[in-house]
Model the fold of this input.
Amino acid sequence: MISAQALKDLGRRIRGEYIEMPGLRLTVTQAQRLWGLDRTACELVLSALVDVDFLIRNRDGAFVRRS
Done:
């Protein structure tokens, strides 16, 4: 299980990546590979970023930055 602090740290890191690359769009599988995360941790952090309205999940299942 991932700690709350680790989730926050990952969230900041991933948020930074999306800010640096505005067109970034990743599926969970792609995000796992890019950031070296297991599926559970990846889904948790991406879902948390959706919950705070930073990301949205599009129809193709990719996570993109909310404009």
